[in-house]
Amino acid sequence: MHSLSAFLLSLPVVALAGHGAGVHRRHHHARVAGIAARQTPTAYTLEDDYSGPDFFKGWTFFTDPDPTSGQVNYLSQSDAQAAGLAFVQSNNITKIGVDSTTQLQPGQPRNSVRIATTKTYDSGLFIADFQAMPYGCSVWPAYWTVGGNWPNDGEVDIIEGVNLNVDNQITLHTGPSCLMNEATTMLGSLVGNTCTSSNGANAGCAVVQSGNNSFGQPFNQMGGGVFAHSWTNESISFWFFPRNQVPSDITSMNPNPDSWGTPVANFPTQSSCDLSQHFTGHQIVLDTTLCGDWAGAAFSQDGCPGSCSNFVADPSNFQNAQWAISSIRVYQPSGSQ
């Protein structure tokens, strides 16, 4: 496993987009490269705070068949809460998980939860604090945002991975005419520059985080961390902070992205992709699916035993398949609301 020190000591890299091979992705139905320095840090105002006892008041529960072909049955809010798959603990940590008690027949779908905010966003500073995320063979968790008309309104995958992955993948999906061709400074590794997605080709433009415990079991073992991303018409930029490295401006709810250093991933608007034309009206989404188009296809090569379908039948395989959420907060530049 990559150590935390590797993350702290890593130097920024300048990545020039190139077509990546073998990047498995989700399909969700439903100025200048780099970051310009500012003379004065932007002040932010809290717009929405998803946390504590009222967490679920701002969300809807998705109950349609999984569009990524996952072997899951997404429950309504009442059913999920009755089954103990969606609740807020006395310490104000929200838990959202996969059923880990019911024995199934091979091929049967397992109960799970997918939620989306009732509110939509066209920009903002999004800061999500997770104590834990789902992981394990067959498990495919994601924290993302998406517009109502996929892919033309865009999709932003902030947390995503499958099976026994330990490196998070960040991806943008768009409608036609979006290529990330310009060099940009970031800590992650660019593995694809074609953001344009469709039903038949939806890899998107992706950045892989490595060496910083950004996904799966290592993430949970260190007590989680914070994923932040800034979405403007000029750029969509992402940062990750392990639990013991979370900046004080985040914990005090006075975020200052100018002080956070080089982002893990940075997608600037450019001549080959005007971000303002590709991202609009996004809901925030959290889900955990099983097997499906990515986790199922990569099941064996990721070192998982047997078949994915058979694996899903055993409830003991899903003790760690749950989100533990401290908060998801959305900020806007002061005076912009």
From TrEMBL:
Keywords: Glycosidase, Hydrolase, Signal. GO terms for biological process: glucan catabolic process. The keyword Iron-sulfur does not apply. The keyword NAD does not apply. Residues 59-303 form the GH16 domain. Gene3D superfamilies: 2.60.120.200. It comes from the Eukaryota. GO terms for molecular function: hydrolase activity, hydrolyzing O-glycosyl compounds. PANTHER family: GLYCOSIDASE C21B10.07-RELATED, GLYCOSYL HYDROLASE-RELATED. Belongs to the glycosyl hydrolase 16 family. This is Glycoside hydrolase family 16 protein. It comes from Phanerochaete carnosa (strain HHB-10118-sp).
